[in-house]
Amino acid sequence: MQSSHPASDAITVNNLRKTYRIREGGSWRGKTREIVALDGISFSVPKGQIAGFIGPNGAGKSTAIKILSGILRPTSGEVQVNGLVPWTNRVAHVARIGVVFGQRTQLWWDLSVGEGLALLRDIYGVDPERFARNRARLADALDLGGIMDQSVRQLSLGQRMRAEIAASLIHDPEILILDEPTIGLDAPSKLAVRAFVHELSRDRGTTVLLTTHDMHDIEALAERVIVIGHGRILADSPFEDLRMTTLSERILELDFHGTPPELALPAGAVETSRAPHSLTITFDPRQIPAPALVAHVGHLPGLDDLRISRPSIEEIITRFYADHAA
Amino acid sequence: MTLRPYLTAFGLQWKIGLRYRIAVVAGLAAQMWFGAVTLMAYASVYHAAPDVQAPLSLRQAMTYTWIQQSLFTLLPLGCLPAIGDAAKTGAIVYDLLRPVDMWNWWLSASLARLLGNAIPRAVLLACVAGPLAMLVGLGAWSLAPPADLAAAGLSLISITLGALLSATIVMWWNILTARTLSPLGSYAVGTPLAVLLSGMLLPLPLYPDWIRPFLLAQPFAGITDIPIRIYLGTPIPGGVATGLGLQLFWLTALTLLGRLWMRQTVNRLEVQGA
């Protein structure tokens, strides 16, 4: 559209602000207070990318997702999704996106999954041939064959979420917005959802915006993480970059068959805990590379085993939030 | 613009309305009971004061009551249940995510729900209170046929307008529900207003003289009272044209104002939950 919004961007957001007015005290005469949910955020998502959108509760993620979906108006700022402004072209905009809110259902409780999909076909005006093709493809990829004729009321959470995702894609949207799609799911269901989203992006070039509190979703799917806190973007980078800048340390665990000996450690490594038969050392690989440290401790008497690990993604994000007081 | 999404919404709610067959039978029994009690009350009042020139004859009052009872579920008693549920769970956001005109989408669903509820009950009750009652010798208590052929045709047009008007009022309850995120307010306001002002509780022609013009001019009279008056052939001030005109006026006014309210509501609808 405009030169500043290259055609290859599926989503562009520029200085987006949203404040809520909250009435306090009595419903009649209470004072109103302004809560800033989004304090001027900007980012863009190129076509075909999977972008993870994370942040603590109340950070403004949901507000941003709702604005991008076209169901909430911002206070100010510019947004273009597929070249459209969501809140001024609501009908045209929503026809081209698919949305899954993990905590709500878009299918009809009283109907079967198949009937619900047929209703969505009529709502979105999907022609019968394309509908049949999409339905077969989604049923296959999301393993819906056995539940097509079951009413939504009877589905397990995992089955329902797979049906929800199918429902959001029956009209071939160019952008899929997933708001906590794995919440409450068991491990196999989570893996199935992740695998499907990954294939969708790879095979069909669908742009995916994903919010989640499950960092494994992010690790498995997102090429890029946008961290939001206090209504601002705190970080926007591939996850590995976030790891390097936030918590690059490694952990070396040593097991002994006797009492661990006293150690003289090189710079960059510190003993962080000691147990009757083991030691934990935390080190910064930029100061002391792992091989050098292993060589240093490898000849210790009574050493049985050693393991090197990295902090989990949860620890990294927790540290990141703490560093930014988010 | 295609009609398909709206026909789909209509079809879905129509099916849901028809699904509750036991409710139809239970409702029928309740409405027969209330109808019978009301009829006995009228009979004793009319016989106690035979000299008073009532605006409706006893037979007309009975017919009025039967039709009101049979159309009870056509009244706008509250919001569309599906919208009430969606407001409570937050699933109402998905309605905003559909590429449809929200007003027409909800209106089709609301109309279908009213008709799906009302038509089976009305047909059943009309059969029982009409031909069946006459066959078993209760002709004096039965539902009388329309005044004449013209009255039959015009009342059919009028009840169609009445159904549309009722669905339009339900839209106002739907918007109220979307704003307050609870269906309770719509029922608290809608049920007493609809029961009282439609003539369900007491036929509007039987109210005192001074208040009758106001009762005729308010929108709820257009749902069942005006169609019944046309059916009975009782005079409407200004004639049948005024009756149909009032219905059209309210249908237009409530649609235009309601659409404005809807637009404003959609613009500032904040979604429940995080």
UniProtKB/TrEMBL annotation, chain A:
Molecular function via GO: ATP binding
Domain ABC transporter: 11-255
PROSITE patterns the record matches: ABC_TRANSPORTER_1 (PS00211), ABC_TRANSPORTER_2 (PS50893)
Keywords: ATP-binding, Nucleotide-binding, Transport
TM annotation in the entry: none
InterPro entries: AAA+_ATPase, ABC_transporter-like_ATP-bd, ABC_transporter-like_CS, ABC_transporter_ATP-binding, P-loop_NTPase
Highest taxon listed in the record's lineage: Bacteria
Full protein name: ABC transporter ATP-binding protein
Organism: Gluconobacter cerevisiae
From TrEMBL, chain B:
Name assigned to this protein: ABC transporter permease
Transit peptide found in the keyword field: no
Record key words, sorted: Membrane, Transmembrane, Transmembrane helix
Domain of life: Bacteria
Coiled coil: none
Transmembrane regions: 20-43, 63-83, 122-143, 149-172, 184-206, 244-262
